[in-house]
Amino acid sequence: MPFKCLIIIMMMNNTYTKEYALELLNAKGDALDELYRKADEIRKRFMGDEVFIRGIVEFSNICANNCLYCGIRASNRNVKRYMMSMDEILMIAKKMEKSYQTTIVLQSGEVKGKYDEQIGQLIRRIKKETSLAVTLSVGNRPYDTYKYWKECGMDRYFLRFETSDRALFSKLHPDCSLDERIQCLINLKSLGVQTGSGFMIGLPGETVETLAENILLCRKLDLDMIGIGPFIPHPDTPLGNEKNAYEDDKEMFFKAVSVLRIFNPDSHIPATTAFDAVFPKIGRNLVLQRGANIFMPNNTPKKYREDYLLYPNKPGVDETPEESLDAAIKRILSLGRTIGTGPGHSIKKH
Ligand code: SAM
Predict the structure, then answer these.
(1) Predicted pLDDT at 10
(2) Ligand 1: residues whose CB is within 6 Å?
(3) pLDDT given for residue 201 in this prediction
(4) CB 3.0–4.6 Å: which of 4, 101, 271, 283 could bond 276 by disulfide?
């Protein structure tokens, strides 16, 4: 039977259940090999062999929020705060355009309202002066702000729901609720913005059941992009002495990616940097071989990198943007994959 027919039958039979997710997440031995093989096959069928390179610019670490896990949380006095100028960001965007990077991902801490207008002007200028697609990742905002940014030319927005466990979410986020976060994602989708979300793997207090629910929530939200990565305790945060819930079973990090791919065949899934922090130099390669199809080299100037440590041992802190891009290209090609051309927009038909 053709593979696509099989997928359609799986969908009609409501195969995407919590039980099925749990069965896959608990795979061992041959079943685990089969899980990775199947995820890679689905990635290839739906997304092809191209790996799109999206350049991330961490343009500000100023944050008003106090998420309990995050290294740049407002209360961390050990962080030297910075905000890059518009000209500095535009210069980077223009450099990116000359390389294989067709999307600029602008990420920062969360400061409600204060810089919204400035961010809008930045989007307008990038869209006017380059051919790049623009992804923004700056946290929860009201509908009208997202609408304004969309009018400025924003193509995509990335906002993780972090965990689907409502009680755990509240414990970790003094500044917002899970419902508010989900509403932001619904608003973005209603505006026609390509929408990405995701979660951390192994937050203290979560179980494999939570992980299954997280994957199901991604599917329910019908996301264009899904970014997930292991939680890594940062010493200057209230969770500094906690452990990742899968500290003794790190294979779970990769299983999560593969199950995510099986449940979301046509979403873009990046191989996130945190995997390299846990498995230096090979983490992201393995993720690309187990379901992912996007790579996001860091384009933040070297002088700011030490100040954007969401978690310790963040890879690439000593690299220049050119070195980060070169390394990314070598890794992708070493896996027998090709570099994505064009903007790499969502392939979903909502
Ligand atoms: N402020 C924006 C937001 O909240 O969406 C974007 C920046 S935020 C720092 C980016 C992501 O970093 C978060 O969504 C979170 O999942 C991740 N992150 C923060 N602290 C982390 C940690 N200790 N370990 C792993 N990931 C972490």
Answers:
(1) 57
(2) 69-70, 72, 107, 109-110, 137-139, 159-160, 162, 200, 229, 231-232, 234, 274, 310-311
(3) 99
(4) 283
* H, E, C per residue of the chain: CCHHHHHHHHHHCCCCCHHHHHHHHCCCHHHHHHHHHHHHHHHHHHHCCEEEEEEEEEEECCCCCCCCCCCCCCCCCCCCCCECCHHHHHHHHHHHHCCCCCEEEEEECCCCCCCHHHHHHHHHHHHHHCCCEEEEECCCCCHHHHHHHHHHCCCEEECCCECCCHHHHHHHCCCCCHHHHHHHHHHHHHCCCEEEEEEEECCCCCCHHHHHHHHHHHHHHCCCEEEEEECCCCCCCCCCCCCCCCCCCCHHHHHHHHHHHHHCCCCECEECCHHHHHCCCCHHHHHHHCCCCEECCECCCHHHHCCCCCCCCCCCCCCCHHHHHHHHHHHHHHCCCEECCCCCCCCCCC
Q: How far is the CA of 277 from the centre of ligand 1 (A)?
A: 14
Site to probe by mutation for ligand 1, drawn from 200, 203, 241, 275 as the one with most ligand atoms within 8 Å of Cβ, is 200
Q: What is the pLDDT of residue 8?
A: 55
Q: What is the pLDDT of residues 163-209, one digit of tens each?
A: 999 999 999 999 999 999 999 999 999 999 999 999 999 999 999 99
pTM: 0.96
Question: Does residue 12 register a pLDDT over 70?
Answer: no
Mean pLDDT of 16-25: 96
Which range, of 5-9, 81-85, 120-124, 216-220, averages the lowest pLDDT? 5-9
Interval 234-261 mean pLDDT: 98
Distance 262 CA to ligand 1 centre (A): 24
Domains and CATH numbers, the chain: 40-339 (3.20.20.70)
From 57, 60, 70, 180, mutation site for ligand 1 pocket: most ligand atoms within 8 A of C-beta: 70
